Amino acid sequence: MDFENVLIKKNNRFEILGFPVLEMPMQGKNYFSINPFLPDSLNRCPLGCLYCLSQKDFWNKDYHIFNNKILPPNLIQTLVNYILDSKAGRKGFPIAVLDYSDPFLPIHQNRLLETIAALRHRNAVNIFYVTTKLHPGVNFLNKIKSSFLKSRLKPVVLVSLSPLQPGLEKVSVSDRVRLIKDLVKLKIPSCWYIRPLVQEWFYHEMLTDLVHDIAPCIKNNIIISSLIMTKSIEENLIANDIDVPVWDDTMNGEKLLLPETFEKNVRSQIINIGKKVGINIDSILSHRICAANRYLNFACKVCQPQDRRFCQGYIE
Q1: What pTM did the predictor assign?
Q2: Is pLDDT at 293 greater than 80 in this prediction?
Q3: 3-state SS, residue 29
């Protein structure tokens, strides 16, 4: 197989058959996104969240074109080299792994470990995002903990769990609560990622239960984050009789801004619910890099008025 004819660079990303296996930092997205797979019938995310960016939104291709295609040899190492040979990579800019699926899916677990190993081989010191909705089992958590400890990476596992009205997700809430607790118990840097936070879908009673259950072990690592909205998501929501969030359709594919009053109210609710059960939540974070910086003792300019070392706001 001719490697160069398979992996093609287009602007800020490297593609195979049109699928972005690596996205480099650019304005508005100052982190790397590595996805060393093809979204065929086996590798596409099966979780079925109704608000998720579909493959059509990203790649405008039917998954059958990826079936039975062979990935280039040493793909992960090649992509890691592209990251770490770039200026942003050498500066330690964050690397998000398998964001276009779920890194804890069984089919992706070895890819996750191989990516960590490839970064370790290059002595990488980057922030490393693992965003998930799945509990992979304690045995696998111990494997990734061991991999992280052997590396110089600055990892954070973000467990996506938002108080949503029924019908939007099929993924177990109790398993995600258990995952957060197990991550904390194993001392793996982790965060409760309240995403997507959507006013029209907000479930106050569920938030109360989650704060009671989760906040005692992770009170200083809670992030709130909004929804990326597209035309296809809107169509999917309508087809499933789900309220469509208010959005500007000229901003197709961009993250919605949280209404200011709603955001302040949710932040206050989380803090006040915590106080009622004796939990002092001193701050609620605003984006993924906040959680990593908290573990590194660098506060975020957005969340607290201090400098941070690893900033998404610029690339020199």
Answers
A1: 0.91
A2: no
A3: strand
